[in-house]
Amino acid sequence: MTARPSLIRSIPFWILLAGSLATAAVGAWLTVDKLAVMSTTLTAGTATPVDVYVGQVWAIVGGILIATGIVGLALTLVVAVVRSFVPVTDVEFIESLDWSAEDDALDDVAAEVDHTPEVAPQR
Hints:
- This is Dinucleotide-utilizing enzyme.
- The chain crosses the membrane at residues 12-32, 57-82.
- This protein has helices at 11-44, 49-85, 99-112.
- By secondary structure, the chain is an all-alpha fold.
- α1 (11-44) runs antiparallel to α2.
């Protein structure tokens, strides 16, 4: 058994991977959607200032989300590579204890103890 769990069973690793993919996907959807709306309305001549100026800002936000997702994916790759260089250490298990020997010792101690009841101090 290894001291550290493998990367495949690491929950933070999978959260980083899934979050990065989701961020990049939302950014791509947002960018493509806003640019398509802007392109359609500008071509048709029905574009309003809100379509053009606000659409540009949303497209920029989408681009930022795409870049953030790419950085997260790069970090995921770096974590996987660094984890592959960490040596695996084996954990040695302690031998099973002989509980019968301990029970015999407790019986000997119990026989020597005076069984007169004592009054416990009040707290």
